[in-house]
Design goal:
single chain; 122 residues; mainly alpha; Multidrug-efflux Transporter Regulator, Chain: A, Domain 2; 5 helices; 74% helix
């Protein structure tokens, strides 16, 4: 199938498919005229890649996880689980930072509100 067909079937843009290929996440076969052609398996692969992006993973991390899909083994599965655990820890730390930032903003808003009250009381 051609790139537009793959994109439509997987529910992504043609630009996304090209990006996945540039990042080494997806491989196509080129026709003599240079057109990209994909097999039926690439629809599932693109859908899987999309799920990984939705989970907050970068293309670099996704590339690290794909051996678990391409050559399933206990070793690759363990490596993928370790990598996903690292990413989860990174996301949790980021969430904690965002909560601290929000709390600091809440405090500033409270101070500003109290100060505003003194301005209207005059």
């Amino acid at each position: 199938m051609r790139i537009g067909d793959l994109a439509a079937r997987a529910g992504v843009s043609v630009r996304s498919v090209r990006y996945y290929e540039e990042q080494g996440l997806l491989v196509s076969v080129r026709s003599p005229s240079g057109q990209r052609h994909y097999t039926e398996q690439e629809v599932e692969r693109v859908t899987f890649i999309q799920r990984l992006y939705t989970a907050g993973l970068s293309s670099r991390t996704i590339a690290e996880l794909l051996p678990c899909v391409d050559t399933p083994s206990l070793e690759n599965s363990d490596a993928a689980m370790d990598r996903m655990s690292e990413e989860r820890d990174r996301l949790s730390a980021h969430i904690d930072d965002l909560i601290r930032t929000r709390d600091a903003l809440d405090h500033l808003m409270s101070v500003a509100s109290a100060h505003r009250t003194t301005l209207t009381a005059k």
